Amino acid sequence: MTPSPDPPAGLERLLGTDLTAEPVFLMARAASTGSSAANKQLAELDLKVRHYSVLALACGEERLTQRELSQFLVLDPSQIVAILDELERRGAVERRTDPRDRRSKVIAPTPAGRNLYAQAKALVGVSTSESLSPLSDEERQELSRLLRKVAF
C-alpha cells in the first residue's frame, strides 16, 4: 500500500480542525480533488468529467433520456442540454425520439462516440488509480461499496 500523500504545503495545521471530521466535507473534498485530477487527464481529449459521465451513460445499454441523465447525474437540465450540444457537435452522440414517449429524446452514441468513450475511460482509469493510490485493493472496493450506499 502506498503511504498517504502529504497535504498541500501550509495546510498541515488544518488537519486537526473539526471540519476534517465531517463526512460531508471529506466527500466533497475527495470529489473535488478526484474530479480535478480526472479533468487534467481528460483535457487531452478536450473533455471534462461531466462530458465523460454523459458519454459513459450514453454508451451503455439503457438508452436514457435527457431527463434521466439530469436526474442520475444530479445536474440541472440546462447543464445536460449544453453538454449534449457539445457532444453532438463533436459527432459523439445523437438525440433520437424515444419509442416509449415520442415527446422525449433518448441519447445514443455514434461509433465516434464509442471510440471517444473508450479513450476517455482509459484516462479516467489512470486518474482513479492515482487518486486512490493510498488505498489497498480491499479498501478501494469498500470505499466504492460505501459510496454507492450513500449515493443511492
Keywords:
10% strand; 152 residues; elongated; mainly alpha; 6 helices; Arc Repressor Mutant, subunit A
Task: Provide a descriptive summary of the structure in words.
Helix 1 crosses helix 5, helix 2 crosses helix 4 (77-89) and helix 3 (66-73) crosses helix 4 (77-89). This protein has six helices and two strands. The mean pLDDT is 93. Strand 1 (93-98) and strand 2 (101-109) form a beta hairpin. 57% of the residues lie in helices and 10% in strands. The longest helix has 21 residues, at 111-131. The protein has a two-stranded antiparallel ribbon. The chain has helices spanning 23-42, 49-58, 66-73, 77-89, 111-131, 137-151, and strands spanning 93-98, 101-109. With 152 residues, the protein is mainly alpha-helical. The chain has a domain at 46-130: Winged helix-like DNA-binding domain superfamily/Winged helix DNA-binding domain (Arc Repressor Mutant, subunit A), CATH 1.10.10.10.
What's the quick description here?
This protein is mainly α.
CATH architectural arrangement of the domain at 46-130: Orthogonal Bundle
Helix proportion of residues, in percent? Answer: 55-70%
Can you write the helix and strand succession as a string? HHHHEEHH
Helical stretch tally? 6
Mean pLDDT score? 93
Give the strand order of the largest sheet, numbering strands 1, 2, ... along the chain. Answer: 1-2
Which class do the helix and strand fractions yield?
A: mainly alpha
Low-confidence stretches: none
Number of strands: 2
CATH superfamily of the domain at 46-130: Winged helix-like DNA-binding domain superfamily/Winged helix DNA-binding domain
